[in-house]
Amino acid sequence: MTLTKETKLTLLYISIAFLFSVLMRLIWIYQFYGYEPFMFHGQFMINTNDGYIWAEGARDLLSGSSTNPDAQNFYDTFHQYNDLSPVSSAASQLTAFFAYLLPFSFESVIFYMPMFLGSLVVVPIILIAKNLKNLEMGFIAALLASIAWSYYNRTMVGYYDTDMLNIVLPVLLLWSIIWAINTNQDRYLIITALDILVYRWWYPQSYALEFSFFSLILLYTLIYDRKNLYNYKLLAIMMFAMMNIDGFIRLPIVIGIYYLFKFEQVQKYVYHILGLAVFGFFLSGGFNPIWGKLQPYVFGNEVDVATKGFKLHFYAVMQTVREAGKIPFETFANRISGHTIVFFFSLIGYGWLSYRHKSMLLGLPLVGLGFLAWFGGLRFTIYAVPVLALGMGFLITELSRVAFYKGEAKATHPNGNNGRAALAVSKIVMILLTLAVLSPNIKHIIEYKVPTVFTHNEVKVLDRLSKSVSREDYVVSWWDYGYPIRYYSDVKTLVDGGKHGGSVNFPVSYILTNSQEKAAKMARLDVEYTEKTFAFQKEHKQEIVDKNLTIFSNIEQMTKEYGYDDTNDFLLSLETDIKLPKKTRDIYLYLPFRMLNIYPTVKVFSNLDLMSGMKYKRPFFYMSKNYKQVKNILHLGNGISLNLQTKELSLGSKKVKIRRFVTTVYDREQKLRKKVDLIDFSSNISLIYMKNYNTFLVLDEATYNSLFIQLMVLEEYDKNLFEAVELTPHAKVYKLKI
Known about the structure:
The chain is α+β, with helices and mostly antiparallel strands. Helix content is 54%, strand content 11%. Among the domains are: 456-604, Pyruvate Kinase, Chain: A, domain 1 (3-Layer(aba) Sandwich), CATH 3.40.1380; 621-736, no CATH class.
């Protein structure tokens, strides 16, 4: 088969753009090569928390079949019951496949996968441009999109998450739709349907974007091409592919529909088939997940309220998730195009491109989802990147053509240049403009020195812990660290990056931020009630579905079973000698130093009245790493200072004596030494100087006595409740004794 000149040029552009994308991602490797804190067992660690959940699933798949007696299906044979390992997820399965085939370590596979898979976005971008007869536009767009701020951030080396294909697949879907609309070739019907199936397999939350594409194609058809039967075939097969049923059922359906459309006698029934597809979509509940997934980002509430039982109020996790927060316009524009000016020109270019080629209006769902970030949802900017990059590419090629035509016009003058010179000027303009739009993004890549999730020393603690725990044991920590803990220690956790709603965060927040006695009791209660709920769900699985049984939160079940009708009364009972559930497994606490940075966030989840939703007074906690001493005054920032002579603390205009001044330091053997100076026992404010961390803490008495401060910062633990397992400056592990 002889390749055409256009095909050869297309392949060349794809190859160069792909190589460019990969090389840009190697800059991080160059910057940190050999940097020990970011490496473990001689391999770079990943730099996104969520990646560890997929790594856990892939690891379990590769480890072979377990002896899980509770296996409900094939995938359950690869992991322990209720360990939440995602062995059936696409990311884990694809990773296990690559790790099995490739001659590289598992750590290398998960570290470099985002670089190669994420760079594939250049393929559909250039193919879209090929259909629009403007390969240079596609080449420029591919270069820009592959390294744009938000896209680079979420597909760089180490950013092992579903984002490595979350943009590639919808842009591939956009390509197949555009080619279908512009060519009316039957093969693009099945390509579009299969892309939807793969996209849904890879990213189950793809409902909203798929439905947006469907809606826009319908609108496009009704406005521009309503008599074209092909478009209705496309809509029908898309809707069948989008139904909310198992992919293995949808696959034969779409294949059957595709071949059915080939029969001439079926053509008069296309509208009926489309109606059947729409009916099947809504009957299968296809629209329900769409709103459910978008609503928290758009209308996030501070408090989630249960609809049954005590109707408890829990703090909504979306209030603390950065990617769901509102962002300034400049940040929004920079994340999409690298610079505000580039962003505005990209918009102009996309408008112009859509005017020239109506099919490019089908890119609006991606643009719209990207613009959602401006209202709430930082992560969504990534969706607008490819389409606006095409807009920028189109604008640059059009400006270069203007330069060429002017050059040709000048060539007609007796003293003018020839046509070759005009072409050279055109290419120079194209190159200079391309470099101009790429430069802010390249600058960002050079400056974006994101660290790994955990450091070498933190992982060493978890690795050692893995050798002394059972896979049925629990490690309690904040949800940010849930996935890495499970991956490195192969244990269970109460909360993680996917299981962190207000109702499950409350007990963990309570454990970490309350006194040791109450924390210890809550830890045992929450773990045993979690396992109890798992057992109930397994035993009454069908009944839960048939009767729509409500599974109440652990804290509500505790309250009821201990004979209370008010959670506040139950929580007060933890100060008494209540009878705890029978111990079925060991519980450990993982307390990293880094958690100090988010202590106020951790506290907020248990700092409210669950019955009324009323927030309690915010505890006083202030951490300072940027301080300076001027004579006898220690300035800690934000209007807080300490008179070192009188030990009087200034909080703005208010002056108070401190209760105690504590200094902590690690000796040569890495043993913690403390010096505690009691100043004024009537005061409620203490100050801790953590010398090795160059950090000051200013906190009230309740915070000072919290489990995290006592066990992590001060290593003051109740030996009747806890046993020290690992005591390092980076992280500490304690074992619960009750």
